[in-house]
Design brief:
heterodimer; A: 165 residues; mainly alpha; 8 helices; B: mainly alpha; elongated
Chain lengths: 165, 114
């Protein structure tokens, strides 16, 4: 069934993306539920000029932003958030050489928009313009978010590795 | 003269990020997603029923016939009251024609009406 194939192809990535924005796994899963309800109800509105992944991510992005607004946490979408404290379990992650898990943890502490841009481009493999379409910003803004995000991510990983030394 | 700062190299970080996999969905989350087609009705896009199309066509044709009768009888020239009535009928015919256009009724179907 085409619907099932879409779920298997996109749901995990969408959940990961939404959880980067919302920093809450349960809410991220709810957002993905709503995204697929909209897919089911509004499939006829799909514009073939943008890929299915871009379209679904755009829906999930908007739903997540709505939730952040309802929470009154618009600041979560600013680019200049202070870095959150690394997860206390991070040192053990390095001790176990689970670098990928440490990266996920570090991503979760980045400002939401930087984490979103990094996730879309470097993890989901979207182009800059596709990420810009998802996030509703210009390509230059995405490039700026990526640059700041990578710099902060590197700082954060260095901080974690110093903590484990 | 100061040298421009070379762009930072993030290629190692980018490689590591590319290897990050989104965690697989839990069975419960996947089951909830797959149940959406059963739980949520897919809305049908509105389209005029054949009966509505026939009714609209009949109304238009009747209005057009009345309009032609009054127009052909010289009512526009002789009686202001009849003329007003004829104008109303013609307006009604125009409105029906617009309705038919909205309903996308084929033009040849309109022309074949006796």
């Amino acid at each position: 069934m085409a619907y099932e194939a879409l779920v298997d192809a996109h749901a995990a990535k969408l959940t990961f993306y939404a959880s980067r924005l919302l920093r809450d796994q349960i809410e991220a899963e709810d957002v993905v539920q709503e995204t697929f309800v909209r897919l089911w109800q509004r499939a006829h509105e799909y514009d073939e000029r943008s890929g299915v992944a871009t379209w679904l991510h755009r829906i999930a992005h908007n739903l997540a932003v709505d939730r952040l607004r309802k929470r009154g946490k618009d600041s979560a979408l600013t680019e200049d958030d202070e870095l959150a404290s690394p997860d206390s379990s991070a040192p053990s992650l390095f001790a176990q050489k689970e670098r990928a898990e440490a990266l996920r943890t570090a991503l979760a502490t980045l400002p939401a928009r930087q984490a979103a841009a990094l996730t879309l481009v470097h993890i989901d493999g979207m182009t800059g313009s596709e990420a810009a379409e998802v996030m509703g910003v210009g390509v230059e803004a995405v490039e700026s978010l990526l640059s700041r995000g990578k710099r902060r991510l590197r700082e954060l990983l260095a901080r974690i590795s110093i903590g484990t030394a | 003269m100061t040298r421009p700062t070379p762009p930072e190299d993030f290629s190692d970080l980018e490689r590591e990020l590319a290897e990050v996999q989104a965690p697989a969905l839990s069975d419960t989350a996947r089951a909830r997603l797959l149940s959406i087609p059963r739980r949520v009705a897919q809305p049908k896009r509105w389209a005029p029923s054949p009966r509505l199309r026939r009714t609209a066509f009949t109304l238009w044709a009747a209005a057009a016939a009345v309009g032609l009768y009054f127009g052909g009888s010289g009512a526009f020239d002789t009686s202001s009251e009849d003329s007003e009535q004829a104008r109303i009928e013609v307006s009604a015919a125009d409105a029906e024609f617009e309705l038919l256009a909205e309903l996308s009724l084929p033009v040849d179907e309109v022309e074949e009406f006796p």
